[in-house]
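Put briefly, the fold is written as integer tokens. The lines below illustrate.
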Amino acid sequence: MANEVRTVPGLGSPPQFVGREAELGSLLTVLDDAGPVLVYVHGIAGVGKSALVSAFADRARSAGATVVLLDCRSIEPTDRGFIHSLASAVGARASTLGAVSERIGRLGHRVVLVLDTYEVFRFLDT
């Protein structure tokens, strides 16, 4: 991943997420009962979207949420491909929408689904 920070042996602890506090605060509103149920993070490549959602996922877990994080680069871009990958991530017994929904319902009071590197394409009739 382009935004991955690696620790060089012998140089101490890994760096912590810094900056982007306002954006992180906006994402954390999904954990509030009156907060949004969907947040979309977008921007040009390399600006730190993955680092931001990773920091959000860490904070959400710390707040007691169950976080399901999918790196969508390896997911077949179809309904079936997405449901299959999500079923695998949440431990559903079958790759059906019903089975996945049922399993997510059992994961906890607050479940956050984070889709990283998800490309949205729109096909228009010409």
About this structure: The chain has a mean pLDDT of 80. The chain has four helices and two strands. Strands lie at 66-71, 111-116. The first strand starts at residue 66 and ends at 71.
